[in-house]
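Training component of the fellowship. As part of building independent skills, the fellow (R.M.) carried out the full modelling exercise for a liganded target. The chosen ligand was copper (II) ion. The inputs are recorded below so that the supervisory panel can assess the work.
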Amino acid sequence: MAALVETPSSPVANTGQSSAPSVHYLNSPQGLWSWLSTVDHKRIGLMYLFSVMFFFFVAGVFAILLRFELINPGKDIVGPDSYNQLFTLHGAIMVFLFIIPAIPAALGNFVLPLMIGAKDVAFPRLNLASFYVYVVGALFAIYSLVTGAVDTGWTFYTPYSVESKTSVISITLGVFIMGFSSIFTGLNFIVTVHKLRAPGMTWFSMPLFVWGMYATSIIQVMATPVLGITMLLLILERAFGIGIFDPAMGGDPVLYQHFFWFYSHPAVYIMILPGMAIISELIATFSHKRIFGYTPIAFSSLAIALVSFLVWGHHMFTSGQSELAAFIFSFLTFLVGIPSGIKIFNWVATMYRGSLTFQAPMLYTHAFLCLFTIGGLTGIYLGALSVDIHLHDTYFVVAHFHYVMMGGTVIAFLGGLHYWWPKIWGRMYNETAALVSAALIFIGFNVTFFPQFLMGLQGMPRRYYTYLEQYHSLHMISTVGTWILGVGFIIMAVYLIHSIFKGPQAPKNPWYGLTMEWMTTSPPHPHNFEGTPHQIFGPYDYDRVLMDKDGLITFNPNSGDHHEESNGKNGNGKKLKKASKV
Ligand code: HEM
Ligand SMILES: [Cu+2]
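Fellow's submitted model of the complex:
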């Protein structure tokens, strides 16, 4: 093993951490009002986290009910109308209230400033405003839920959304309002990344998570206004019959689809780019190795953001758009495969000959690689014009987008949650319980959604509460899968909540990471760091630098950095984690 030396000048004061820091963001200042009026990005992130988890739970219960209904053909628990309402609310809540804010506004808010060594985001008050705007939007959605729900599907397609007797206006108004919250977060992150990086941190020594969030923010700022206007036009159409989508008055219902997907295709990258951003961090940390292809990974995020604006027409192959348009959209859709493929190859290359450890976050990373690849590849089937004509509006689509949104984004979110949990709470969770729950979620997910590809290929249409007998066994398997998923999530809820109260004290750096959030205490100081951190090594310099669990930094003298010899132990006499050969 290479001789390792303790550095005399570490980037931040290294006091070590064997017990909880006495002052941290959770305990000072105290009191409910200090939380509700906080401008601390960590507290705002945490309030977002509670909110999105609540809505994930609500929409998850709807999902379980939907699958219960589908266990047999005909009516089991709900009839056709309630089924329409359940899947609409499930989809709308999952998309607008859970997954869009989940990674950026909850986890991103918490870690992005820490990762770049900043005290906070650029506009802390705007950050708090974004949270309350989200809450107000969510209240409108809840109002719709308790006043007859919505039955249009989460896409609110005209002409039906103009005619439906359900509470369309309140939920679309909620979506309109929540759009501002998303724009605020995006704007805040863009300025934060430009202006508040720690001294020494260049664009190309930012962690890849930050690049991913930056690309996401661009989409949030540029695409969300289009959704806002679309929702507003729909509300005006419903309330006053202005005729923009009504052919009888010279309008065009397909125009709605163009508007909607001009936002909502980029929005699927608002969902997946942050997931990919988390995976880049987890792969590096749990391979203990310099990330392979830093620059391609960083630029592929920007490329995905750009291409995402050019492909919306692939949702409209069967809407009667011109053949030429369909052909071009189909071609452009394939382009998205290139940057996504670049990421996957670079991640795999990073793991190659790394020293991999399989703690819970890494298990989620592997689940992500497997499930996202299936989701992404089946997206290419759907993007192929001729194939989509057959698969459109079947369960193949339902399986595809669940593999991407749940198998991709939600799994990455859970990986990130487990990764940063010790930092957020200063407590460790039970590792064995976490591995069992991750395994159940992976198995349950596949049992639920893989049969849906097969049903879709055989022609089972989506959005129906009943079906022909020929699909019975596949539907039954799919429903059983949700029970396995449910057990996995219940176990997770139990050990995570338990850890907050009873978990052992977390060290500064439980996973030996090199990004800056691991150099502050767990939980962090109210101002993130004591003093201003300087970046003196890159986020993936595993060949140059080692960190131990207490945040002590050691340079590898063989890498060309000057420093004296030692015996492979740091100043506290603790054994240092061995870096892999590179
Ligand atoms: C917990 C596991 C989940 C299960 C069991 C589940 C189940 C379902 C079911 C049964 C449908 C209705 C299919 C149909 O009749 O067409 C559906 C639709 C949908 N789901 Fe999920 N889902 C889950 C998680 C998610 C997640 C995490 C997201 C997004 C973040 C999501 C987004 C959607 C969307 C957008 C729709 C389409 C709604 C529509 O057609 O308007 N689901 N899901
Ligand atoms: Cu799309």
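The panel noted the following from the submitted structure. The chain has a mean pLDDT of 91. DSSP finds 16 helices and three strands in the chain.
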